[in-house]
Design goal:
2 domains, three-stranded antiparallel β-sheet, D-Amino Acid Oxidase, Chain A, domain 2, FAD/NAD(P)-binding domain, 301 residues, 24% strand, elongated, alpha+beta, 25% helix, five-stranded antiparallel β-sheet
Length: 301
């Protein structure tokens, strides 16, 4: 079904979240990623009796949808890189001095200086620490993630019987059903408090857990008292307009700045990676909409 036909009766929800879904549906459609189905609440309740659909008007279902296993994906990329002869090191890098529009090396924690033709800084929420002129344009926010346990053998909340879901409600809660022996994941996409990603405590808050439980009571009542099996506190690296950044450092043409995923950077990684490699190798300039200029023009460095 065409996205416009799907969304034509979105009505009162045609605000921020409505636009978000509209864009998603267009992207799915343009990417030729398989069918989208519009389901009535009655259809939904029949397919997924473990969800309570109170106050829901209808839903969009993408039968071919799924989730990405981030840790395994990163490991696969690293192994492929090593196999091709790449060298991987874990160290903190400090940008070196800039002269004649070029950075003269970077310094590692050990004191070692590395020299290269080009340098790519993809430091996520730390970009504003590494380059202070970026601090006003990258805002790290605290995000909490909860994994709830289910009774042994209860498959209703695992990927066997439940798709990945997003609730287009007042708060944008989303979740991934239990998989790979992990619990039922839920999180609120609402931007949390602004934090320092280096020093932030990684303990969930009592309020966050209460909000997650209250949400479970609303939509997944059988899990309302499920034990919290695991939790994560991480950070979104929000750019001012929530779009990616890929550009030269304004004062060093051999330095590239990549980031601004704004909570959606992982799934775009392979596509953005190709754009970054084309830009660094001088094969194709990066898209203008990812330029630093769009963010910097209001506050010149
Ligand atoms: C709760 C949560 C849910 C999310 N859900 C999704 C989702 O469903 N889909 C999606 O696509 N994305 C999601 N994201 C966003 C995604 O995780 C990020 O957009 C993505 O990780 C950004 O990748 P990155 O490589 O730019 O930065 P990061 O993954 O933050 O990596 C930056 C790296 O740079 C390193 N670094 C920083 N400073 C230095 C330095 N000076 N020297 C050396 N190394 C340095 C850091 O240690 C870090 O390893 C989510 C994020 C959170 C927090």
């Amino acid at each position: 079904m065409e996205p416009e036909a799907l969304l034509s009766d979105w009505g009162a929800l045609d605000g921020g979240h409505g636009r978000f879904l509209r864009t998603r549906c267009h992207a799915i459609n343009e990417g030729g990623q398989g069918p989208l189905e519009k389901l009535s609440v009655a259809d939904c309740a029949k397919r997924w009796p473990q969800i309570k659909f109170d106050d829901v008007s209808w839903s969009i279902y993408e039968p071919d949808s799924g989730y990405l296993a981030a840790r395994r994906a990163c490991e696969a990329v690293l192994n492929a890189f090593l196999k091709e002869g790449g060298e991987y090191r874990q160290a903190q890098a400090t940008p070196g001095p800039v002269a004649a529009n070029r950075m003269q090396g970077i310094t590692l924690t050990s004191g070692e200086i590395l020299n290269a033709d080009s340098y790519v800084f993809a430091c996520g929420p730390w970009l504003g620490r590494v380059f202070s002129f970026l601090a006003p344009h990258i805002t790290p926010t605290r995000q909490e993630v909860f994994f709830f346990g289910t009774a042994a053998g209860d498959l209703r909340f695992t990927e066997a019987q439940l798709p990945v879901w997003i609730d287009n409600g007042k708060h944008l809660f989303y979740g991934i059903p239990g998989n790979h022996w992990r619990g039922f994941k839920i999180a609120d996409d609402t931007r949390g408090p602004v934090i320092d990603p280096t020093t932030m405590e990684r303990q969930i808050s009592a309020e966050g857990l209460a909000a997650a439980r209250s949400y479970l009571r609303l939509r997944f009542p059988a899990l309302a008292d499920a034990p919290l099996a695991e939790s994560r506190v991480c950070q979104y690296e929000n750019s001012t307009d929530q779009n990616f950044i890929l550009d030269h450092h304004p004062e060093a043409e051999n330095v590239w700045i990549v980031g601004g995923g704004s909570g959606h950077g992982f799934k775009h990684g392979p596509a953005l990676g190709e754009i970054v490699s084309d830009a660094v190798l001088g094969l194709k300039p990066p898209p203008r909409e990812l330029s630093l200029g769009r963010l910097l023009k209001k506050s010149p460095i």
